[in-house]
Structure formats: structure tokens, C-alpha cells
Amino acid sequence: MKKVTGTIVGAISGYYDVETEQGIVRTRARGVFRDRKQKPLVGDRVVIQLDNKGMNYLIEILPHSNEIGRPAVANVAEVLLVISSVEPDFSTELLDRYLTFFAWKDVKVCIYLSKTDIAPKDKLEEIIQSLSYYSKIGYSVFTSAKDLEDKLPDLIKEKTIWTLAGQSGAGKSTLLNKLEKTANQATGKISTALNRGKHTTRKVQLFKYGSGFIADTPGFSAIDLYKIKLNDLANCFYEFSKASSGCKFRSCQHIHEPKCNVRQLLESGEISSSRYDDYLKIRQEISDNRMPEYLK
């Protein structure tokens, strides 16, 4: 029996589709994982055992760097965050919530502004001006679908996994459909040994894009920030974390502490007042240990 390593690109009804150097192989997981209460995730690197009778088994799950979403995807290198300009209206508060969540998960984010073609010109200019601040603090920002499509294949490094995220109605599906036109969708070559076709259920799946993968997932509908430790929150705001080296106290929370560099930069306009206001709102949410009712 031969053992090979691969990446889980899809899962349905207890079967796992694993991309290997030999192509995609459909497998079952050994019962030992159930006994260990361990579930293979899309994105996991795994070892599978190939049988010449067509009985292929997933026998080992290699350690993963992270797991995010519900349902979860593992080993996410970067999130492609889709934020709409209109319908629903652009919101820096929602944007900051997503960015805080993924910073807490230690996952990089690339921001894409959708529906720019139907946004009023003056409103769009205002949104793009707001997003320039996020570019300044280190986020990659795309306000053009064509620009994103041109550059994304080069951004996705070999065998790395990106995933889409964003609020309902922001245009994730529209973007995914555009990207899939030039993608060799991984789940399209599933083994026919079990006479099963490509499933249409909303499950997590990976498709090839550039030299890596993009995950199509229905997850990230709820952003539970109240689970972040209060003292860790400031580090989820990248510009705060960078500026904190100039604060008098190492544990400065940038509220009332003397000689706080973050508040000095806030007063001078170098740190966005809306970002700081959102920081205070999230701190309150964590203190209350609950998500605000209007965000549920």
C-alpha cells in the first residue's frame, strides 16, 4: 500500500477529496479520528493510504497553523475581505470588526471594495479616501475588480490558501464567479470511483487559483469579538501596536494612561478617529462579554 501527502480540497458526507501530486483522490477517514474527537478540515495537509482496490483512507492529519470560520477551513494564509460600497452601504465599523477578528486569528487581510460600478461618484470618492488610511497602515486595498483579477494570481503564493469573507450581499459570490472563469477548480476532477458527482451543497471547498487555492466558504457570518482578551485587543489594531512602543507604559491600553503615544497620534490626526472609536466600542463589547444586539 502506498502513502502520499496532500491537501483536503473538499468534504461531504464523510468523504474527503485530497489533492495530491497524482491528482485528486477521494478518501474516507479512519475511525481513530472519531475516537480522538478530531475532524479533518478542508485545507488540512494529510497523509492518505492508497489501495489498488480503490479503498483509500486518510490516516494522518498534519499540524495546521490555524482554523477559521464556521464551517472551518484550516491553514489560511490570507483573507480576501469583500466590503461593499453600497447595498449594503460601506461601513468602517464593520470593516474594523473584520480586521480585528482576523488580526486576533493572526491571519493577513487583503481588502476588496465591491459594487463600485453602482455607487454614486461623490460617495465612492469618500469611501476610497477612507480606505487610503487602511493602505497607509499596511493593508492591501483594491477598489477595482480588474486590478484585483490582474494581481491576485501573483499574490497567492504556491500551495497557500486564501479565503473569501464579508457580509451577506457584499458580492462574494459575484467575485468568486469572476475568478472561477480562469480557475482550474480543484473539485471538478473528483474521482468517479464512487459514482458521485460534484456536490452543490454549501460546504467549504478549495479551488485552484494561481499557484495556490481560494476557499469558497459560507462561514464568517458572526464575528465574535467579545472572546478576545481585553489586554490583547490593542495589538489587533496594527497602527496601535506599532505606536505603542512610544507609550510610557508597556501595558498601555491607550485610554487614560499618561504619555500615551497612540492618543498623541490620534490628536495629531495620524491615527484615525473612527478606528479609535471602534476600538473603544469593541473594548466595551469585551467588557460586557457579549456581542451588541444590533450586530447579531
What structural category do the secondary elements indicate?
A: alpha/beta
Shape: globular
The CATH C-level name of the largest domain is: Alpha Beta
Total DSSP helices: 8
The count of strands amounts to 13
Q: What do we call the CATH topology of the largest domain?
A: Rossmann fold
What is the radius of gyration?
21 Å
Judging by the overall fold, what is the CATH architecture of the largest domain?
Answer: 3-Layer(aba) Sandwich
Measured distance between first and last alpha carbons: 50 Å
Q: Name the CATH homologous superfamily of the largest domain.
A: P-loop containing nucleotide triphosphate hydrolases
Q: Enumerate the spans where pLDDT stays under 50 for 5 or more consecutive residues.
A: 184-201
Q: Mind describing the biggest β-sheet?
A: 6 strands, mixed
- Strand content is 15-25%
* Residue share in helix: 25-40%
Quote the average pLDDT: 87
Strand order of the largest sheet: 10-9-8-11-13-12
Give the H and E element order: EEEHEEEEEHEHEHEHEEHHH
| Domains, number | 3
